[in-house]
Amino acid sequence: MKIKPILLAAACAATLGQALAGGEGWTHDFAAAKKQAAEEDKSLLIDFTGSDWCGWCIKLNEEVFQHDPFKEGVKDKFVLVELDFLRDKSKLSEETQKQNEELQSEYGIKGFPTILLTDAEGKPFARTGYQQGGPEKYVKHLDELLEARKTRDEAFAKAEKSEGVDKAKALVEALNAMGLEDEMVASFYGDTIETIKAADPEDETGFVKQIEMKQKFGKFESELNNFARARDHEKALAHVDETLASGEFEGEQKQQVALYKGMILAQQQEFDAALKAMDEAKEIAPDSELAGRIEDFKGRISQMQAQVEASKADEKGDSDE
C-alpha cells in the first residue's frame, strides 16, 4: 500500500516531535514497554528525566545512555523507557505528557534523573540515578541491581511453599532485598505487607514494629518540618527534647533526633551547645553510618562559629573607631 506524500510528511513530523533524548532503543510508551517486557522476559529500565533543563540528566545521557557499550550491555535485559519532563512542551504530545505526570505521581518521583528498575508489571525492585564512570561501569551497576530482583523472586517463591513465620520471613527478605523507600514499598507491595502480618500475628520477625516505628518517625519529622517552615526554633527544639525524653526511639532513629537538636542549636548560634549535642548524638550509635558523618557536621558548626565570632569582632572594631 502506498502512503501519500502529505501523510508521510505528517508522520515524520510527529516522529520528530516525539524525539527521544536517549536515542534509538528507547520508548515513551509505558504500556507498550510493559507488554514487550512480558513477551521478551525482560525488566523495565525507566528514566525519569528532564532532557532540556536537568544538568545531571544530560550528563547521564551523554556519558552513558548514548554509548554503544551501554546499549549492548542492556539490550538483552531491559526494555528502555524514557519519561521526559521537558520545559519545551511542544516536543511531546499531550497524551505522553499526561502519561508521564501520572507515572511520576504513581511512583512518587521527586528528583531527576531517577532510574527505576521494574518487572514487566511495573512493580519496582531497584532505584538509582546518575553514576560516574561511563557506560561499562553503569552496566555493571545495573547488573548488580538485577540481583535484587533475583533475590526478591527467589524469596517470593520460597514464601509460596512456606507457612506461618517462615512465610513471613521469606517475604520480609524479599522486601528488604530491594532497598526501596518505605513509601514505594507501601504503594506497590501492600498486599505483601498484609500477608506478612497475617502469617506472623505475634510479629516474631519484628517487621510490623519496624514499620510502626518508621511511621512514628515520619510523623516526628513532619511536625519538626512544620516548625522549621515557621522558623520557630524554640518550638522545634522543645519538640526534639520531648521526643528524646519520651524514649520512643532507639538506635539510629534516636541518633537522628539528637542530631536534629544539634542542628537547631547551631541555627540559634548556640554553637558550644550544638557541638555537645553532636557528641551526644554520636554516642547513641557510634558504629552507625550517620555517626561517621557527625564529625563533618561538627566541622561545619565550628566554621560557622568562627565566622560569627569574626563578624562580631569586626563590628566591635568598627564601633571602637
Automatic annotation (TrEMBL):
Keywords carried by this UniProt record? Signal, TPR repeat
Question: Which segment of the chain is annotated as a signal peptide?
Answer: 1-21
Instruction: Identify the residues that the record assigns to the Thioredoxin domain, covering every copy.
Output: 5-147
Record InterPro entries: AGR/TXD (IPR051099), Thioredoxin-like_sf (IPR036249), Thioredoxin_domain (IPR013766), TPR-like_helical_dom_sf (IPR011990), TPR_rpt (IPR019734)
Q: Which PROSITE patterns does the UniProt record give?
A: THIOREDOXIN_2, TPR
In this chain the TPR repeats are located at: 255-288
Quote the protein name from its UniProt record: Thiol-disulfide thioredoxin
Species of origin reads Haloferula helveola
High-level lineage:
Bacteria, Pseudomonadati, Verrucomicrobiota, Verrucomicrobiia, Verrucomicrobiales
